[in-house]
Amino acid sequence: TYAPKLVLLDISDINCIQDVAKEILNCYGCVDILINNASMKVKGAVQSMSLELDKKIMDANYFGPVTLTKAILPNMISRRSGQIVLINSIQGKVGIPFRAAYAASKHAVLGFFDCLRAEMEEFDISIGTVNPTFICSYHRQPAPGNWEASVWK
């Protein structure tokens, strides 16, 4: 058994993910199961959302799990063993009004993991996706003009 180790990671900060993955692999030698379960969402009309916010949502919901998975994957491939799970959203399959950036990021990441599943079959690495319906997450009331405060995490 291993003593638990707390590793802090902001999944939307793509630049630090490689270092965190190296830290985990250096500490434990391998990752048997990777569960990608971080997400960020915002509610609002398309025309009121800035491109900056769209990119932030895409970084957290698409590039974050993809980058972390790609950092861990070579170790799993070399061992021909491992499981990767994406906790996604039903909005990765069906978009609803006022959630365009969120739904787009969830569609994109689901497509990536569907392709990855087919590619990893030959290495005996299991790729799974879970697309739950709406979940309760916390929300902060935004100050006027502060879009970051309108983000659910």
TrEMBL record:
GO terms for biological process: intracellular calcium ion homeostasis. SUPFAM superfamilies: NAD(P)-binding Rossmann-fold domains. Pfam families: adh_short (PF00106). One of its GO terms (molecular function) is oxidoreductase activity, acting on the CH-OH group of donors, NAD or NADP as acceptor. The keyword ATP-binding does not apply. Keywords: NAD, NADP, Oxidoreductase, Signal. It comes from the Eukaryota. Gene3D superfamilies: NAD(P)-binding Rossmann-like Domain. The keyword NADP applies. Belongs to the short-chain dehydrogenases/reductases (SDR) family. This is Dehydrogenase/reductase SDR family member 7C. It comes from Zapornia atra (Henderson crake). The gene is Dhrs7c.
